[in-house]
Request: fold
Amino acid sequence: MENIIIRGGESLSGQIPISGAKNSALPLMATTLLTKENITLRNVPALDDIISMRDLLKGLGSEVLGDLKKGGAELTLNTNSIKDTEAPYELVRKMRASVLVLGPLLARCGHARVSLPGGCAIGNRPVDIHLSGLEQMGVSIDLKGGYIDATIAGNRRLKGARIAFPMVSVGATENLLMAATLAQGETELINAAREPEIIDLANCLISMGAKIQGHGTDTILISGVEALNGAEHRVISDRIEIGTYAIAACITGGQIDLLGADGTFLRAVFDTLRASGAEIDENNWGLRIIGPKGKPKAIDIMTDPYPGFPTDLQAQMMAYMTRVSGASMITETIFENRFMHVPELRRMGADINVHNSTALVRGVSNLKGAPVMATDLRASVSLVLAGLAADGVTEISRIYHLDRGYEDLVGKLVGCGAHIKRI
Ligand code: EPZ
Reply:
């Protein structure tokens, strides 16, 4: 099992190239199930989750060409025929986004058997909203043995429906958006997620011949078509990676140029960082982040679906707020257990008190390096950020979580002068 060792205290300075968005590439890969023609994706990040999705799709009958190299891979996917419609537990357990093959498989061949994902560190994360939407499109769902057995009666086509989501769900919006492209008639998704990754997916589906309007708003209209063609599509840059490295510049009081970064999708995050004392310049080559000199100002955060403050940057922001003058209140509204990083940050000397879904972070003079443990993807990277700022040495175990969502994290940070290595 590898660990990461960090000797903190350096102000980072340098350039970091930003990779393609994991949470866009994953649903984009699933679109191959919707057509017999080639889907070519560019700027795909080299991550373990992408490998998991590739393996899952291959098991279903997809051919996936292209090597996952750092700096943006090009993958060409082709699913000329579906040879299996089962997404097995051992794959789904590793990566919840596997459930995104459910809608496309039903649209393509009328049935699917997908393992229930099971919970994960940040919450029980059910898929009930995905399933009730599919039932409204004519799918009969049978849950047995930990699996979702989904079939369309009489093996007919999915039928368009007016689906109002009881709460905003990124995955449910993606699953039903893909399913609706080949359904019979019109589908209306109400209270749909507005994340940039939804817009990216819809743009790719439209280039495949899908008829979609309203993507990026809370109401998406889809008119089903008989068949979809192939497409070529470039994955958008990863806004969570951008936010993570912007906070790295802030927490170390350094200056980092994020190459290829686009600030369009990070207004809420950048307003918060600027309020804390950071300077953020948007240029045609990317973003320049200049961290505050001296102590950052305390800012209160409440996570919210897009365009609010993203839950995937809550842990990173908390690490940053441990050094403020005053106190910051951080409220997590999306997941019920996304404070796993708190006890680890406390081991480093942070002063954090949690009541239900709110954490009160009182600023301390500085964190102290310590051995800590990663629990989930974003909690892991918040410990890296804390280690970069802390006095002394921090050793982080279970860093396989990081490899799921951050391409070449150690290499990118070493490039900015960080004393960090994997052992
Ligand atoms: C996506 O997860 C992202 N993952 C998550 O990023 C992200 O945190 C999340 O959206 C919210 O933005 C990918 O895109 C692969 P949801 P998803 O459905 O789709 C509840 C990361 O670190 N819910 O929007 O699973 C759910 O439990 C990951 O990159 C139901 O109750 O999130 C949660 O409390 C972590 N029933 C809330 O809705 C359902 O059927 C939001 O979940 C579906 C969701």
